[in-house]
Amino acid sequence: MGYTTQGFKASAVSAGLKKNGALDLCLIYSEKAATAAGVFTTNLVKAAPVLLSMEHIRDGKARAIVANAGNANACSGPRGMRGARKTAELVSRSLGILPEEVLVASTGVIGEPLDMNLVSNAIALLAESLGPDGLQDAAKAIMTTDSFSKMARFEGAVDGRPYKITGMAKGAGMIMPDMATMLSFILTDISIDAASLQAALLEGVEKTFNRTTVDGDTSTNDTVFALANGMAGNGPLSQGDLMEFTRGLTLVMDDLARMIARDGEGATKFVTVELKGAASAHDALQGARTIANSALVKTAIYGRDPNWGRIMAALGRAGISMDESATDICVDDVQIVKGGLGCGKKAEKTAAKRMEKDSFVISIDMHLGTFAEKIYTCDLSHEYVSINADYRT
Amino acid sequence: MGYTTQGFKASAVSAGLKKNGALDLCLIYSEKAATAAGVFTTNLVKAAPVLLSMEHIRDGKARAIVANAGNANACSGPRGMRGARKTAELVSRSLGILPEEVLVASTGVIGEPLDMNLVSNAIALLAESLGPDGLQDAAKAIMTTDSFSKMARFEGAVDGRPYKITGMAKGAGMIMPDMATMLSFILTDISIDAASLQAALLEGVEKTFNRTTVDGDTSTNDTVFALANGMAGNGPLSQGDLMEFTRGLTLVMDDLARMIARDGEGATKFVTVELKGAASAHDALQGARTIANSALVKTAIYGRDPNWGRIMAALGRAGISMDESATDICVDDVQIVKGGLGCGKKAEKTAAKRMEKDSFVISIDMHLGTFAEKIYTCDLSHEYVSINADYRT
After folding, report:
1. Do B386 and A384 touch (CB under 8 A)?
2. I want to staple A166 with a disulfide (CB 3.0 to 4.6 A). Which of A5, B10, B135, B336 is the partner?
């Protein structure tokens, strides 16, 4: 299979946590001790598995990831924490590794107790069914309202020795930096020290998941893990090797981030908001984010309406430097605003045609400076409302 | 009529700016020179009428307000500015007052040229049809996606001399502080100096319109005007009189603000988010606002689902001090979270019943300090998406 990665095995089962009987619990196991890095939600309300994994990853080592969907084990108090710990212990016992080598992640409904009986019963089976081809099932098991599973890969080499980076993610709702509100697990057989892996992961997350938004709500469970088991057998990484690895890792996460925006809850459009000519790096990011999160811009996208007045209004309230009369806006190659003024009905009609496509770019040039940023987003549809009005029922 | 206010006349016509032929242009006229106060959008992109009215109100005096719906005259460049100026001039000529005594306000689509022929043709008719009973029609003429016109009043007295405060507003979409994204005109016959009127208006706006949100998008056209024509004949205001007037003004704006949230685009529920026990005034406001603007909280309200995990998650990402395990949440009188943990399915069922009502209160006690705030909001429905996907078509 295209996603197998040397030295990693995985499995997934239906433990009964999802009401529809789909895969909902998965295990990823590294045959060798792996260096490990993690990035976690900035939400002050952190789920029990987030708190536990922050503890377990501190030494930069891990052997296994156990993750469930269907229940976030968040806002679950001491009982939730005991459940997360118990999960790690059960996995450690069934694999013969230390509990501290097990990372735990959860996603799903907040505030309901995790049924530990269901988890306990399933873990032995998970351990038994581990295999090199299990990653695709694992990617399915972490889905919640996702409509497709998300995987990506990169192949590189150090001194002629090939290595591979394989990533999976789930997204769909409660998606907004920082950090990217989702689960993502990245596996690689490269040999790399924990500090370099953490630095590369942080750099990649910042450029990809943290540039993605579905609804502006940051989750309590966001987690990205990277495990590197060293089985590629490469020697120490040069500065150039490290740059190339970081690039590959970022590409994998960029693919996953795009998939998350494309598969945003109820999304019918994948949109990249590109803002350039901003007066500062902060302004570029803040401006792009404000547009990408505006309910009015997102509903206009859903309606295939190049309603640029809403984009101007979003920029104007973003708390950044702005000169209305210097602002240009395009949809793909079609300019709809020049110097703050509309380019007319004909341009808007052509832009509306571009918006019929599954994906397009809204680009803004503020002509105030040299700073640029991009954000991946999606539209706000009837389906988003349906999904989130009825999520728990 | 209940809304007539001594010395003020008004009228409204259908000038053809709304496609459906409804009232869309109105004039409010004070027989005597009035002291005037104004509060305007904080959006850097300010519509032409906002810029012009900021100029005209600087001296604290005004005689007339002319307002249109159907076109915001925003992002319209020098041409838009000429249009706003021309509107003020035409009104001044037909009323025999100075152009600087005319305040202009617009609301509607951004970025389309205002058809000045339609406006010019209608102004003579507007002036001719001025009457003391015209305020209700004026309130209708400023509606855009509003489903009902919004008026409120207050009666007070200074030294036994009665005075009246009458307010009108339009809201519906692009509603988010600061400042309240809407038009509101307040008329009173009290005698008051411009500085006191401005101070009272600012205080009232801050407590009411700036505590209201529909979709988190701040408009380019937000405007609140207050005109006081002094025809109540009262003498100088004591400190107590001023406090009473400010209270009355605030009550009028509070009524209007509640109506705006209740009539939010597609809203099926009017919700007051009350946050108390915050560690600072900033935290109280920021926390309440983050909950009131969360797409996930608002869709849960639409689904009548007391999904308190989303409230906790919103608080956790609000950028404020928070202790998850100290947080309590109620829907009206029903406690659903105690010390960060859910109170069980039975409590949630009772809370869900409260959420069947047209309006209810979500109250949060953070138990960290003594600061409290409230925000008026509404749910996020299929209808909001429909209205805003198809707004220009």
Report:
1. no
2. A5
